[in-house]
Amino acid sequence: MSPFFVMSLLFGLTFSQTASLCAPSEYIIHVEKRECAYCLAINTTICAGFCMTRDSNGKKLLLRSALSQNVCTYKEMLYQTALIPGCPHHTPPYYSYPVAVSCKCGKCNTDYSDCVQEKVRTNYCTKPRK
């Protein structure tokens, strides 16, 4: 193999791990309210993917703020509102949800993201879907 080919391959592998693997991905949210008759399946986009991180061997020597790792998070988002069918008049039938427009690798912002990996929780309807 030529040195140019090997260098191109190494550069490609390195660059592919850090570029565009954090991107908006399609996701379905199931929304229901106790008072409403139906469950609503909403198609949206969330940020998902791989972000390059480094784990330091000198954890005890560094400040805690220096140890935070990058996550795939929102760069730009907007909110949309859906109408949940079958709600009585005294119940607001609206549900607002985020839509990822673009994503980035960065520190997790707890103002709008859940930064903790939770136990597996299913996303399903207990009522008929509409």
Automatic annotation (TrEMBL):
What GO molecular functions are on record for this protein?
hormone activity
One GO cellular component assignment for this chain's record is: cytoplasm
InterPro entries in the record: Cystine-knot_cytokine, Glyco_hormone_CN, Gonadotropin_bsu, Gonadotropin_bsu_CS
Q: Keywords in alphabetical order, please.
A: Disulfide bond, Glycoprotein, Hormone, Secreted, Signal
The residues forming the signal peptide are 1-16
What are the subcellular locations of this protein?
Secreted
User: Which spans are transmembrane here?
Assistant: none
A Pfam family this chain is assigned to: Cys_knot
GO biological process terms, alphabetically, are:
G protein-coupled receptor signaling pathway
Any idea where the Glycoprotein hormone subunit beta domain is?
21-125
SUPFAM superfamilies xrefs: Cystine-knot cytokines
Q: Which CDD domains match?
A: GHB_like (cd00069)
PROSITE patterns named among the record's database cross-references: GLYCO_HORMONE_BETA_1 (PS00261), GLYCO_HORMONE_BETA_2 (PS00689)
Q: What quaternary structure, including any partners, is listed in this protein's UniProt entry?
A: Heterodimer of a common alpha chain and a unique beta chain which confers biological specificity to thyrotropin, lutropin, follitropin and gonadotropin.
Family membership: Belongs to the glycoprotein hormones subunit beta family.
Return the protein name: Thyrotropin subunit beta
Organism expressing this protein natively: Eurypyga helias
